[in-house]
Write a structure and sequence with these properties.
- The chain is of the alpha/beta class and about 290 residues long.
- The protein folds into three domains: about 110 residues, 3-Layer(aba) Sandwich (Rossmann fold), CATH 3.40.50; about 55 residues, no CATH class; about 80 residues, no CATH class.
- It contains ten helices and six strands.
- Helix 3 packs parallel to helix 4 and helix 8 runs antiparallel to helix 10.
- The longest helix has 30 residues.
- The chain is elongated and about 110 Å long.
Length: about 290
């Protein structure tokens, strides 16, 4: 049986890895690559770098690995389906649901294989977790938490971190537990209000109070409670003390302090206060 003729479109951060893998697969010949931006990582292996998916199709490939930016998945995938070429497409499948359905329908209508690159399903640790859960070795699952941590990769700016990276977490949560999602939602505003803001409020209050007090008392260009000669309030009060006019100095000081306290109180009221604490919860016992 002849080897499969494979093509690759997209030679960027992910495409370079696909080029390496395709070049080493038994029963597969990487016969053509394409990227209008050229071979920036030097992975073409001597193959001519084509400019378009149409040129790639013209080489007579059996299937194609699609590793272009997500916003180009739909036109590239539809062109491959129209030409009768099987494809594996990097996740996310498309930038939105309508485009993803259009791609899936195009391959299904022609009886072609259209796959999505959820490679984390082949992670040995996750495969073991799935098998052990299915065998009942880990008991009942009540909650699954995932976290991705690292600098934002600029290459996913076309669709964002949720569609490009969280697709792994969303897929694996259902796949490992072998359960379907009942609902999917995002609560960014709730998180900011109940988690982020309580942590930031003390710092915000301290910063505002410090800035206000500094503006009131520092000998600078700030003019507050000025006299007719445009002296600072603090300088004016000191001058009254030196002149023996203690009554006026005390009156100005009281007004200054009262205004400062009032403004600080308004800052505290405006920013608000929230206490963080633990809530008593009933522990759920998993099956042994």
């Amino acid at each position: 049986m002849a080897n499969l003729r494979a093509g690759l479109i997209g030679l960027g951060m992910m495409g370079r890895h696909h080029a390496r893998v395709l070049g080493g697969l038994q029963g597969v010949d990487l016969v053509a690559v394409a990227d209008p931006g050229g071979d920036q990582h030097g992975v073409a292996g001597g193959l001519p770098v084509l400019d378009s998916v149409e040129e790639l199709i013209a080489t007579g490939i059996d299937y194609c690995m699609v590793a272009v930016p997500t916003i180009y998945h739909e036109p590239v995938a539809l062109a491959l389906a129209e030409a009768g070429v099987h494809a594996m497409i990097e996740k996310p499948l498309a930038q939105n649901t309508p485009s993803a359905r259009k791609i899936a329908d195009a391959f299904a209508a022609r009886g072609l294989v259209g796959a999505v690159g959820h490679i984390e399903r082949y992670n040995p640790a996750l495969q073991s977790a799935r098998a052990r859960l299915a065998a009942g070795e880990l008991g009942s699952v009540y909650q699954v938490t995932t976290r991705r941590q690292g600098p934002f990769p600029a290459r996913i700016a076309d669709v964002g971190v949720v569609k490009d990276l969280a697709t792994h977490d969303i897929d694996l949560t259902a796949w490992v537990t072998q359960q379907s999602f009942v609902s999917v939602g995002a609560r960014t505003a709730t998180t900011v209000r109940h988690v982020v803001m309580p942590l930031l409020r003390p710092a915000i209050v301290a910063s505002l109070v410090y800035a206000f007090v500094r503006a009131m008392t520092a000998v600078s260009a700030v003019i507050f409670l000025v006299t007719a000669e445009y002296n600072m309030a603090t300088a004016y009060i000191v001058g009254r003390v030196e002149a023996g006019e203690f009554g006026i100095a005390i009156a100005y000081s009281c007004v200054l302090i009262a205004i400062m306290l009032a403004v600080i109180g308004l800052i505290q009221l405006g920013v608000g206060e929230r206490k963080l604490g633990r809530r008593e919860t009933v522990a759920l016992q998993g099956a042994a």
